[in-house]
Recover the amino acids of this structure.
């Protein structure tokens, strides 16, 4: 094509979310000629529409919840919820009004070259970029192409859904005020974090989950705990729901379920995410683009000269996974195959509801499916010294999953106040395969939440919960 600019680089990175940005920056700093291609904002979903703005909402909502706990502990206090400071923080502090100039400048400062546009593979060593300005550029990669293009919200095939103006996380993050009422389809991390945060600002929230429990990939106890707490906070949480239709009119949304109709001013769809493998041209390197993820080996390689990382490879849709994989891929690229391999045994995740649900490694069910001889131990937070002291808002538990033949933890959950922080110690134990006997010989500071780990270890070795 006559007006197509042809360019060459060592590495072309398609998608500059947390993973792509980390990889492209480190390769550029190492002296490679790197072109980073980004269709939207450098930084990706996490800083602009995901982790950071939602955690600002959660922080504010938690402050309101703590105020409501004052009467039980310290007299009286009254909160006057106002979403405006949250919306302002998200706009001004988190996203600079959804402007990525700082991130682009940082990458260019590291020595990278940046192209704003949509990239598509044309074979293993070439990326065709449709630039925002209207031009087109063909970039040939001497060393390789890295696909780090993330995922987009998935809308389930519910009759009527494609004709109504429902919210995804992108709209919910840009809310200027808490809606009067909100129906949330999906009881995973996205749905639950938004549901609780808006409810604490006064929104009447209904959560509709198809499975028989919330947080379906975690321990069943986690979903039960969150459903119980949300219910007590006044949310209407329905599991095992089959949604048969959605409509929108002047009065808002109507969601039809087997158990009746749910009406709400806003509808948030949070039913998982999918990559666009077809749009990325991955068929040109022989991949089946109907799949739900890009298959990679343990060094993030897809094919000779092609790597993929982050949400698009489906090994955990978390920023820390994306950045971890960027480190693995960067070392593979820089050493020509001599770097470490990815190890997901101690993959941590935290759902930032209150109580926070932290988990690492395998759930009990997954461990049993893998043929591991499992022993579990549990401590209830309200029964621990610190939980009892804490009182209002002390719901939670610590559950350990031990490989009883090896005498090491292969998974753990810490749900409760600061559950994500307590997870730190458990992550080290699973990652380092610290023997349970060594964990039992440690001194746990009194009275901390993490001392609940010792209670759970005692339950583990008591033998009562063997299975
Ligand atoms: C509401 C919400 C809350 C979350 N909270 C957390 C949390 O608390 N903790 C956590 O660890 N994770 C959280 N996540 C998940 C986290 O945001 C993702 O795991 C992370 O952003 C994935 O990084 P990535 O680099 O793989 O992809 P992304 O962040 O999705 O970035 C991919 C980039 O590629 C670009 N792109 C796509 N196609 C093309 C193309 N053809 N050409 C050029 N560019 C392209 C996109 O525009 C995007 O910028 C949350 C997600 C959401 C939605
Ligand atoms: N704190 C965090 O780290 C954090 C926060 C938000 C998102 N994330 C990441 O983003 C990813 C996507 O989050 P998510 O919550 O959208 O996805 P998810 O897959 O975890 O949960 C989606 C839920 O929607 C339900 N669902 C699907 N179709 C339905 C239907 N027709 N009716 C009712 N329910 C239906 C599913 O059963 C599931 O429970 C997560 O996997 C997570 O890794 C992480």
């Amino acid at each position: 094509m006559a007006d197509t600019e042809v360019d060459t680089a060592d590495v072309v990175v398609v998608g500059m979310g947390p993973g792509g940005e980390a990889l492209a920056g480190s390769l550029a700093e190492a002296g490679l000629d790197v072109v980073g291609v980004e269709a939207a904002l450098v930084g990706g979903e996490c800083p602009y529409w995901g982790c950071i703005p939602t955690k600002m909402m959660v922080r504010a909502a938690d402050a309101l919840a703590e105020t409501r706990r004052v009467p039980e502990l310290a007299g009286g206090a009254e909160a006057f919820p106002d979403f405006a400071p949250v919306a302002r923080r998200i706009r001004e502090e988190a996203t600079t009004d959804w402007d990525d100039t700082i991130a682009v400048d940082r990458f260019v400062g590291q020595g990278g070259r940046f192209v704003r546009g949509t990239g598509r593979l044309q074979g293993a060593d070439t990326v065709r970029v449709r630039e925002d300005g209207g031009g087109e550029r063909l970039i040939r990669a001497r060393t390789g192409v890295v696909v780090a293009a993330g995922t987009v919200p998935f809308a389930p095939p519910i009759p009527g859904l494609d004709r109504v103006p429902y919210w995804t996380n992108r709209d919910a993050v840009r809310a200027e005020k808490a809606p009067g009422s909100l129906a949330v389809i999906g009881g995973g991390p996205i749905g639950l974090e938004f549901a609780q945060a808006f409810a604490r600002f006064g929104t009447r929230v209904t959560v509709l989950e198809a499975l028989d429990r919330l947080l379906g990939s975690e321990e069943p106890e986690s979903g039960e705990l969150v459903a119980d707490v949300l219910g007590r906070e006044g949310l209407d949480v329905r599991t095992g729901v089959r949604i048969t239709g959605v409509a929108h009119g002047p009065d808002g949304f109507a969601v039809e379920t087997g158990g009746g109709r749910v009406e709400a001013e806003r509808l948030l769809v949070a039913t998982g995410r999918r990559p666009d493998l077809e749009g990325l041209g991955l068929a040109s390197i022989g991949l089946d683009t109907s799949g739900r993820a890009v298959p990679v080996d343990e060094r993030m390689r897809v094919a000779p000269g092609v790597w993929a990382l982050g949400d698009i490879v489906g090994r955990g849709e978390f920023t820390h996974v994306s950045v971890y994989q960027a480190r693995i891929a960067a070392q593979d690229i820089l050493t020509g195959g001599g770097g470490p391999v990815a190890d997901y045994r101690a993959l941590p995740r935290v759902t930032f509801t209150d109580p926070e649900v932290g988990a690492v490694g395998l759930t009990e069910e997954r461990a049993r499916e893998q043929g591991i001889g499992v022993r579990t131990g549990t401590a209830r937070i309200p029964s621990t010294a610190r939980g009892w002291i804490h009182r209002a808002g002390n719901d939670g538990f610590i559950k350990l999953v031990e490989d009883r033949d090896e005498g090491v933890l292969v998974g753990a959950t810490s749900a409760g106040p600061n559950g994500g922080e307590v997870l730190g110690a458990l992550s080290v134990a699973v990652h380092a395969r610290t023997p349970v006997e060594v964990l039992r010989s440690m001194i746990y500071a009194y009275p901390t939440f993490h001392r609940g780990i010792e209670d759970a270890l005692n339950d583990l070795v008591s033998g009562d919960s063997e299975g």
Q: What stands out?
A: Residues 96 and 182 are 27 Å apart (CA to CA). The pocket of flavin-adenine dinucleotide (ligand 1) is lined by residues 14-20, 37-41, 44-46, 50-51, 54-55, 118-119, 148-151, 169, 190, 280, 310-311, 317-320, 322, 352 (CB under 6 Å).
